[in-house]
Amino acid sequence: MSHTPSRADFDQYMVPNYAPQKVIPVRGEGSRLWDQEGREYIDFAGGIAVNSLGHCHPVLVEALKAQADKLWHLSNVYTNEPALELARELTERTFADKVYLCSSGGEANEAALKLARRWAHDKHGAHKDKIISFRQSFHGRTLFTVSVGGQPKYSQGFGPVPGGVLHAEFNNLDSVRELVGDDTCAIMIEPMQGEGGIVPATPEFLQGLRDLCDEHDALLVFDEVQTGVGRSGSLYAYMDYGITPDILTSAKSLGGGFPVGAMLTTDRVAPVLVLGTHGSTYGGNALASAVALAAIRHIDTPEVLGGVAKRHDLFREHLEAINRKHGVFKEIRGMGLLIGAEMAPEYEGRAKDILPLAIEEGLMALIAGPNVLRMAPSLVIPEADIVEGLERLERAIARMVSAS
After folding, report:
1. Of 46, 60, 187, 246, which cross-links 219 as Cys (Cβ 3.0–4.6 Å)?
2. CATH of domain 71-299
């Protein structure tokens, strides 16, 4: 007997660490989705900044289908052509000399942190082990990455957590100076905090971190899992700032929906990851690498990257118009197509209330904490879909306001 999965099946069969919306999408094309009942939605969520080219983009579908008929997985006992091509493209398009491939952003950040510790240990000794991160940061869900992330709620109940991690205040260089020293091995930062509320770093702050790392012979690590691969309007956000890290992590948009991650670094740092020091069973598998290769080649073009800035302006224009009418936002901020709208004081903590109303109006959106509405749509979302999606958002907001 056939069975059509329902939302109730989630509660029955899945562990309760998520609380998905009631609708179940079954088909996607571009920036539109359809659920089991055939209802259509405009997608401003983008799989949390993952679906960089929307749903079922023909370039990615073609790459996946072509590779599926050739080779899927070998393990790291061997290498494969798509992985080597992806690594070459990443180094040629960025500051990096070497690439480590894995399956997710959390894995990429875990690798970056281990690399930083190993580099400091081998170059300076075991005493140089301190990692400075920032309050409200987010770097993944492994025990190491949640410890480095600056949101204690994600590590509560999982202790004891790894030590040697210090947290400073984002965009406050003095708070970093109070913590940095000769025992600092790395400073890890998101160029724009994602889960922490879509807060861009100031150029002066990032330059100050670069200077402090140089002064103390520490490594500057940029977590670009959410800001990377076109999301900011450049291939990576460090390019917008003109400040080069020693290590960079990438995932989400890199695969356009296929699970893949990467850690990028330099010839100065990479050699300490000698044979056997780290690994990933699925990292660099041929399917993921082929899709990521197609994604990065398509995204890193003037047409796509230039269109991100244009779409950002369109979002901002319409969000500001919504706010003039309803007064629900305190600030609209972000870079490229990672946009946050912080709620006004009278609607404090109510960003989450917009999501189910938006679903009812045919729009999928996100939050970044309880107080920031977040949008991370496809980098090539049609402008007509932006306008229509924001009309649907306005209807959802109007309903929230009228019920207040």
Report:
1. 246
2. 3.40.640.10
